[in-house]
Write a structure and sequence with these properties.
- The protein is α+β, with helices and mostly antiparallel strands and 113 residues long.
- The chain has 2 domains: 60 residues; 38 residues, no CATH class.
- The protein is 57% helix and 14% strand.
- The chain contains 2 helices and 3 strands.
- It has a 3-stranded antiparallel β-sheet, with no helix packed on it.
- Strand 1 and strand 2 form a beta hairpin.
């Protein structure tokens, strides 16, 4: 009879170890599956953004520009794109005029205009 009991204990230990290993594998599978799902969502977002740009025919990008105030004349500004050199002339906003007035260097000379 002792041999029979030892067999049950051995089988119980084997089953216990297999259960713990299976649970670990299931957890790893869930983690991997979750990561792949996140990667798929990321690629879907890239696809959606690219499709929208293709559909619209344009995209917005930040471009460094140089701005010269009161050029070519007082109250206007010249904007030059750093990437293409293209220039635009626009009327200065009230805020830009106020900023220039408040930040003007005090050299003791009054502006004639």
């Amino acid at each position: 009879m002792p041999v029979y009991r030892r067999g049950k204990l051995s089988l119980a230990e084997e089953m216990s170890q297999a259960t713990v290993k299976r649970n670990g594998l299931e957890d790893a599978l869930k983690e991997i599956s979750s990561q792949y799902k996140a990667d798929i969502v990321q690629q879907e977002n890239i696809i959606r953004q690219a499709a929208a740009k293709i559909h619209d025919g344009y995209e917005y990008r930040d471009v460094d520009c140089e701005v010269e105030f009161n050029v070519p004349e007082r109250g206007k500004k010249t904007i030059t794109r750093s990437d293409t050199g293209e220039t635009f002339i626009e009327i200065m906003t009230m805020q830009e005029k106020a900023d220039l007035f408040c930040n003007a260097p005090d050299n003791g000379e009054a502006d004639a205009n």
